[in-house]
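Q: Could you write out the predicted structure for this multi-component system? I'm mainly interested in how the pieces pack against one another.
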Amino acid sequence: SQQGEEDPQALSIQEGENATMNCSYKTSINNLQWYRQNSGRGLVHLILIRSNEREKHSGRLRVTLDTSKKSSSLLITASRAADTASYFCATDRPGGTSYGKLTFGQGTILTVHP
Amino acid sequence: DAGVIQSPRHEVTEMGQEVTLRCKPISGHDYLFWYRQTMMRGLELLIYFNNNVPIDDSGMPEDRFSAKMPNASFSTLKIQPSEPRDSAVYFCASSPQRYTGELFFGEGSRLTVL
């Protein structure tokens, strides 16, 4: 079953604008991660937020986590054409046997127009 | 670091043929994961290894799929016999023993079964 689901499915913006993507999940989590995938390439890790954290920053990225609502958001500020990619949230569940068993959402396709 | 290396990058084969996908994880990473990505089902975890031992293969779709990790620097995913519905991009990812949460993905092997 789908654990993480992103919203919107596709987002088109102009360079310099901010992009916000949302992720909802169904069960309790250990942490939530965001990955980026350029067309025809592998996934690249962007940022990880643990279940006891509410907000995290990395460069132009800002991630929030609301465990009561089982949701997270990824904000990319001052977007660039090079940010054009698919963005995925991924969650793993608490428990030793669940290590690394990330469940990925379907992704948001972000297009940044120059 | 060379990153996770997968081969072949592209494979086109006919139904019924055997397919072998290969992966070399990042040196020193003790966890290795095989994922499959399709438009319909997104990213699915097939199997993962810890210290060359398969830990969870519950995602392997059926007996036609098998995976091995004969040593710390090499893993294979084999499909025999292949079917058109196996067409997908297969990703290998690795992660260090000390849990950082981040997975390092290869560039993927795009499989087309005619």
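A: Regarding packing and overall arrangement: The mean pLDDT of chain B is 94.
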